[in-house]
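Q: Protein A?
A:
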Amino acid sequence: MQMKEKSAIGPILGALLPILFFEGLRSSKTLDISVEAPEGHFQIVTLVAALAIVAAIAVGIAGHRLRNIKVGFMSLAYVSLAGIFVLHGLTTPGFIIHAGHLPSVLAQLSVLITSVWLFLSSVSTDRFIIRQLSKIRMWLIPAWLMLLGFIFLLALQQPHLIDDIPLNLDPYKWIASSITCITCVWTMYRYWQSYRNAGFPLQRAIVYSVGLIIAAQYIIVMGTSWKLSWWLYHVLLLFSMVIMLVGLLRQYFSQGSFSNSLKVLFQSDPRAWLEACKTPSVQALIMATEARDAYTAGHNNRVALYALRLGEEMDLNKHQLRAIAQGGVVHDVGKLRVPDAVLNKAGKLTPEERLVIERHPVSGYDMCKRLGFLKDELSVIRSHHEKWDGTGYPDRLSGENIPLLARITAIADVYDALTSSRSYRQAMTHEEAMNIIIQGSGAHFDPACVKAWRRLAAADAKFFEEIAANSRSLKLVHKAAQL
């Protein structure tokens, strides 16, 4: 823990050192020379915008495929930076448009809007505003692109309208820069917390990228146009984009080969997607969970597969199937916060220990909402131990108040638990597990889900046999590794 606390110095210095360098350069009349180069300015701005567009496209595709609203907000952040920064370049004094203060207004506007979208990406997904935006997430990027396009045309045809926005004047420039810095500091803090807990490369990249945006904001306000020190903020935004792209590459393109990485982004079949689209972040959660409990090796994956097949039997749409897969493979992640003595206890749990175990759905929910999981996935994680009669946990939901995806996952979870060997009992047969599930219809399980489960078991016995065979092979490999 101490090492992690010390390592926070890195992001802080990453934001402060460019500011100190800027102040040192600005204080030297000899070094801080005027470099008035409109074409050079346009070229640098265009490069920054191009990298921002690449980042936005990569993030947008990943966010759509991974059903992650936080990633979608990040895409919108860099779309905004790219679009408005292109305008900033086009309005370079002495280049194409001569519109007074328009470049400085657009520079401030670009980092302000970018910081707000990045801030939203750091907010927990159970917050009201995030839940509402999630409902229209399919339209967010198209609608935002249309708005940016309108601003683009307005700036080119009626530049005086945007030039009149007082973002370059007191006190408005200080208000705008304060909002930018506050939202960026909060974003850095939230992503640094997440990085300390999960250690995902993209989280770390966001921390450093946002730190450079803070430094760029400082220079935008304090710098003098065309001075060498003023050029520094363009370079900082360029490096911010590079850092983000490196983080994206490490996070989403680490599947062993480029072809496998493309499968991750463009897989369409839900069952194949379950195997190919486990990002390093999700895979890390699975491995960390299963490392805590030797008897759950493969459990998360099997539960997701069972839930997917049952979901198909119940005619769920592809978005629901993706959600049940994403939620299923990490449904027990909250066990990371359960002490080993309780999690791996061979004997009967005490009432106090039972309460500790029953908190794991809430712990998993709290962890995953900070990672950007959507409402449907979160419902699987939080509510897969609820019972139809209201005697489950953690919220004592009953009947159709239990989310459908959680009701489906509950059957998959119990079936796999019954047919897997545990420290306190041997695995049951398929028939024995089916009898228990059927007996639980209307009490533990949704009767409609049980009915669909029985149809599935009768129509596709081979599916259950294949998973059981794979499970036995995995157990043998796990035992051999222990030896």
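Q: Protein B?
A:
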Amino acid sequence: MSKIPSLISLRGVTELKYVNADNVTRYRAIMRFLYEQYQKLNYWLKPEQIFEGVMSWQLHKNYTLEQCQLDLEQLVEWGNLSSRHDGGRSVTVEEYLRKKYQYLLTPYSIEIERLLESLEKVHGYGGSLEPTLFDWIADTLFGIRKHAGVYEQGQALELWNSLYNSFQRLHETSVDYIASLQTNKAEELMATDAFLLYKDSITQYLRDFVQALQRRSFKIEGNLEQIKAGVRDLFLHAVVEDEWRIPKVEEMVTKEQYFEELLEKWNGLKRWFIGETGSTSELALLEAASKEAVVKMVRSAIRIQERKRSTISRRKELDYLGQCFYRSDDINSAHKLAAYAFGLFPTRHLQGQDNRESDSSEMSMWHEPPNEITLRSRSRKKNERLDTDSVIDKSAKKAVLRKEYIQRHKQELRFVIQMVEKRVIRMSEFDTVSVSERLQILQWIGLCTAASTSFFYTPEGVRIQLKQPPNKERTILRCEDGELELLNYEFQFEVANSDAWNEMIHWIEV
């Protein structure tokens, strides 16, 4: 669940007023100059310094120092600047009492200017696919498991920053890159011949990322599953303690509030890789989007190649070949020319009546009379109306097939009832199973292994969970049609929806 915003977080942001104010160019020039000086470690500035810096850009010809002071006071009122009295230059009491201030950017304004600076550099979605981040995240999670709550001073904070920064980078860059392939510009490029020049490189880039995702994501999921709540809380508390060792002069949230923020971020990371019950993980969606992008690239390239082939005219070549046939002296030379020109083409089967006059295999097809075949017109003109046949009644056949399906389905459900009564069973404990039971067992294994949680729910309200055998133990499953060697899995059956279960039992009995 997303965090519920507070009333403070939903307040009107007065600090953004200068971005769209009437004199926006003057305000933004002042803020940009102060931001550049802030990056150069020049914090408190006098109005004269600000005025000279703004005027050096030659953006305002009739701008005066008095107007600059009024703009600075307006920015202070909006909360963009902090001001303090400047009495350093005073010689007399009157000069000291006169209003002279120095100005400093507020934290809100610094972040706003950083955002505006980054927005000026945005020319598209950008992004990239970096499969090495999967290894980095997996190694960091393994380090958290390895220490199991025992960390040196500053180590937990370093692990957390490495983990979450890598996760954010993986999410943002990959999502941005996939989004860049869906833009109108990308669509237009995929329709041009120039796309064929780097189609292979993009396709290989996407395929490498998908393969790395499939191979390495299991390490991340396994580490997240094995980091239990106790180890997780010890780690996050260690991160809080490391953060609180850093001296800060400004007010911060309490330790409890900071721990709740870290816990929410951890749960978000876990949901991204593993998902929740009844919902698909973001990792699976990213994999599907990457595969769809590969398919889209290939289809675009095929369309371009087909379009190029369809526009090639072979009229001159066929005309020249026809003249060669016309100049042939006899039929034998024409046969040889046809063999050299056309070779062996895929056969075409034309249905018709064979009117051969002789069964001799030595007689050439050229001496046989032609077979007349009526070809259907491809004209769009409406053909003459033909009499339609009556609809064949297949209700009896449908009733038989329906009865067979119901019997087969009831047989499968009876097997499920037997398993629920056992609750827990290993592969080695099965007696000789029928063909349909073997197919059911293999289907359960496939559904459980495909799910990140190793369990799934049947339509009848049964929760089927699969557990891996220790030490990769193997066994033999004896079936009516042979023997099957596989891992000695353990199935756990539990009725999750009693209403659906009771309804199913009643249906079988009826």
